[in-house]
Structures are given as C-alpha cells and as structure tokens.
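Working notes for the structural subgroup meeting. M.R. asked for a predicted model of this chain before we commit to crystallization trials. I am recording the input and output together here so anyone reviewing the notebook later can reproduce the run.

Input as submitted:
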Amino acid sequence: MTPALMDDYPPQPDRLVTLTNWRKAPFSAWGFRNVRRIIPTANIAASGDAVALEPALEEIGHVGFNGHDGNPTTVSQALRATQTDAFIVLRRGRLASEWYGNGMNATTPHIIFSISKSISGVLGGILMDRGLLNPDDRVTDYVPELASSVYAECTVRHLLDMAVGIAFTEDYDDPKGDVMRYRYAMGWDPLPAGEAPDDLRSFLARQKPDGQKHGELFHYVSANTDALGWVYERASGQCYSDITSEYLWIPLGAERDAYITVDSRDAMRAAGGICVTPRDLARFGEMIRRRGVADGRQVVPGAWIDDINEHGDPEAWARSEFADMFPQASYRSNWYRIDRTNNVLCAFGIHGQWIYIHPQAELVIVRMACEATPLDIDRVRGWRRGFDAIADYFL
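Returned structure, recorded in token form:
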C-alpha cells in the first residue's frame, strides 16, 4: 500500500506536495483539495444560511455506458476505476446520489479549474442587471491599462464568449509555451532561476493580437477570463472575491466559504483558481437549472440564462479547436451548450471537473477529479456518455 501524502510532520520528500508538483499525479490527489496550503488565496464568504439538500437516494451504480476506452462499464465501476474525487447527482434539487474518494467529503473545498469561468460568466449577468456593467462596452472603458494589448478593441462580450483574436496557444503540456509563462505570472509554478518576477495583470497587458477579427471566432484562452475579472473589479469597485461572495455565493445559499488563488500583487484568478465544496458546486448547478433561482431568490437574471441557451454561435464553435470534443455545441458567457436540442449545459475544467445540467431530466451532475492528464478527450467523451446515460435513466 502506498503511504499517504503529507502524513508526516514534516512530510517525507517523496510524499511532500509543493508548488512544483501539486498539479501532477499522484501529488494532485492531495493538492487539488488543499490548494490554500500551497498558494495564497482570498476567501469567498458563504451565507451562513445554506439551502438544504434533501436526500432522495436512487441506485444508479448499475447504469451502463461505454467508458473512455470504448468498453462497457457502469457508473459504479467508472467511479472506482478513474481518479474521481467527488460525484453528486441532484434530481429536482434533491440528492439522488453522492460518492467520494481520495480523501474527499461533502465539505472539502476542491479546485474546479475552468468551472471558475462559468462562475464568472453568470457574474456578468448579475452585474449587468445591477447596472454596473454593459457587455457591449469596450474593455478599456473599465481597464485603460489594457489599451496597448490585444484587449484594446475588445468588448466585454468578446471576453465572455472567448471571441478574442489573441496570439495565445492554450497548450497545457508545452514546458516553454504561453500557458507556462501564464502560470509563472499567476504564481502557480515557481519562477525559474534567472527569470524576472511577473504578475497576472502585467501579463495580461502584454498580450498581443493574432490578426483575427474579434467576435468572429471561438478561441479558448483562459487569460481572457482573468481580464474579465479585472473588468468586474473596476465596474463594481470591489475585489473579485467580494464580488463573488456578495452577488453569488451568499444569495445562492452556499453552505461553506469558497476561496480563490491570488498572485504576488493580489490579482485573483477568475479563470481557474476557485475552490469550492462538492455540495456547493451542486447548489450552483441547480440554481442554473432553475433559470437563476435558488430557494425562491432570483440570483442570476433568468434572461441571462436564456441568452446562454439561445445565442451561442454554433458556426464559430464548429471552426474551433474544441469542435471534436463536443460536436454540435456552442459557447456563450463561459458555458458550453453541448446538446442544442435539449439545452444541455455544462461547465468544464481540466483534470476532470464537471457540471452537467439536463433540463428535461431535471438533473444536475457534479464531478470533481484529479485526472493525471489535463485534457484527455477520450475521457471527456466517456464521462459525457455516462452523464447522458444517467439522464436517460431518469427520463
């Protein structure tokens, strides 16, 4: 049996999780649920008055589908055979199924990577509804410091929809590429010897165009959502963690505080740095399923949720680098509509993070994981088949 990580005081070198290895297997099994012990963070306060999740348990472990390798499996087998940390199924807002592994439980915060973007996407609708933000405004109306960057001619809507013509390649495995330099700036990796210190906002201000016209393509670049977070801070006069708490986490009825990573100059990682508990992520998904309503409160404008479902550009998606992952999808306000017929929405993050929302089945599924590979398309497709099978079971 392999000894547990971080179980000595001090930990043995082969079991020590650090800034260098926290996203790499096997260290990520501990790192993804202990981010604030590795990276500086800011708190996102909860309400203190949580929306109840009543149990209505269903036996779904036998539900079958073809897994990532194309072979038949079941929900129960897949959970145990993959690097799943948490798995929750809500049906009509009640707990139909709940499963945990790798030291997780219902109240353990876990990093959700790019599901953070989908949180940012709905915050835009809330700020617009409060009269603080206009998606058609230019980014530089809020953040003039970006006037010399690719964002100079962008609108807020371009950031929301990943429709920026930016010269940035989102390659998680290139040790010398754009993403690695981005990680140094946000404080997610130690700076190599001889490298000049950097920070997230300075990094954003250096980003350049690629010659493509804004608004006519879907080009997935995480830095766009960090620019969006900066816009929100200027629009509201608050830091991003307080915006998220006041306008979303408290009215949502979250049970536990969330938190977000910050860089050396207190810039908060809106694109991928939020850590939340599994049940609170399920509450968030249920609020989206209910057209922005949580416990009778309109948290996100219903029209904003409608807009996500109705105004994604399928042609821009079809030309994108993600078209093979979710065929026939569209993207709007940092949400994926992966089934345009049934309005199935999902939020998705690297290393296996998911929110899957199926309106017809009245279903929300949350998965948190520590998959070794940041983006494994076969695993994405396999779990999508699994979620669809669970939805079919309830229909």
